[in-house]
Inverse folding.
C-alpha cells in the first residue's frame, strides 16, 4: 500500500499550549483522510476527518489542514490537555478502495 | 455501549494452537474490517466484508488466517497453528455504506494476542 508517514515520532508540549502533528502522504489519489487518537491498550478513536475537496476542517479544539499540493496533512489541538496524551495516526483512503493506510503514529506527551 | 465490541480483549496461547476472535460491529453498519497492529506501528488492513460477503483480503492474510461473517452481523477471525509472529493487536472496525466512497471507520478496543 501507499505509505503514510509522520515527521515527528514524539511530541512533548506543555499543558495549555497548542499542538501541531504533521503527516505526509504519498498517493495523490487519496481523497479522504482521518485522524485517529489511540490511548494505550485501546483501539483507535475517530477525532476528525477531511475530504480532498476541502483545505480545512474544524472540530471541538481540533483543526485539520490539508495541503494537496505537497501532500501534507496536519492536526492542530488547541489548549492541549493531559487527556490528549496518546498516539495520533493519520489514515488515508483511496476512493472506493474501502481500506485505510496508516502511518506509524506520533506520540503526544502533555506535560502538566 | 453501541460501539464496536471485540472478544476476548486478551488472549495468550502456545505456538501451534488455534485461536478465534469475535467482533460485533455497530448494528447499522454494513461493512466490517479487520486490521492487525504491532507495537509502535499503525494498523494494517487484513480483510473486509460487506454484509456477509468477504470482498478483499490482504497479502498479510496467510492461509492460516480465515475470517467469516455468516449472517452479515458479527464476524470471527481464526488463526490456525499460531506462530510467535502472529503476536499483535487485532482490531475490528465497522462503517456504514454511504455511497460516497468515503466512509468513516469506527474501531473496537482490539484483541491483544500473545503467542508463547
Amino acid at each position: 500500500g501507499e505509505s503514510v508517514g509522520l515527521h515527528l515520532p514524539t511530541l512533548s508540549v506543555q499543558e495549555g499550549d497548542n499542538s501541531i502533528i504533521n503527516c505526509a502522504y504519498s498517493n495523490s489519489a487519496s481523497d479522504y483522510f482521518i485522524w485517529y487518537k489511540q490511548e494505550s491498550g485501546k483501539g483507535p478513536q475517530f477525532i476528525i476527518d477531511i475530504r480532498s475537496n476541502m483545505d480545512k476542517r474544524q472540530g471541538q479544539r481540533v483543526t485539520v489542514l490539508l495541503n494537496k499540493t505537497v501532500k501534507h496533512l496536519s492536526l492542530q489541538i488547541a489548549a492541549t490537555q493531559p487527556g490528549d496524551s496518546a498516539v495520533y495516526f493519520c489514515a488515508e483512503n483511496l476512493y472506493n478502495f474501502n481500506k485505510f493506510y496508516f502511518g506509524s503514529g506520533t506520540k503526544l506527551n502533555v506535560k502538566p | 455501549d453501541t460501539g464496536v465490541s471485540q472478544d476476548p480483549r486478551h488472549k495468550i496461547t502456545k505456538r501451534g494452537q488455534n485461536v478465534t476472535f469475535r467482533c460485533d460491529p455497530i448494528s447499522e453498519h454494513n461493512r466490517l474490517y479487520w486490521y492487525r497492529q504491532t507495537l509502535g506501528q499503525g494498523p494494517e488492513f487484513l480483510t473486509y466484508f460487506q454484509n456477509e460477503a468477504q470482498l478483499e483480503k490482504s497479502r498479510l492474510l496467510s492461509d492460516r488466517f480465515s475470517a467469516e461473517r455468516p449472517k452479515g452481523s458479527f464476524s470471527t477471525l481464526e488463526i490456525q497453528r499460531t506462530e510467535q509472529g502472529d503476536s499483535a493487536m487485532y482490531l475490528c472496525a465497522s462503517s456504514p455504506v454511504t455511497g460516497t466512497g468515503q466512509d468513516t471507520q469506527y474501531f473496537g478496543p482490539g484483541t491483544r494476542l500473545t503467542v508463547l
Remarks:
- Residues 102 and 110 of chain A are 23 Å apart (CA to CA).
- The radius of gyration of chain A is 13 Å.
- Chain A is about 0% helix and 55% strand.
- Chain A touches chain B at residues 1, 4, 31-32, 34, 36, 41-46, 49, 51, 89, 91, 93, 95-96, 98-105 (CB under 8 Å).
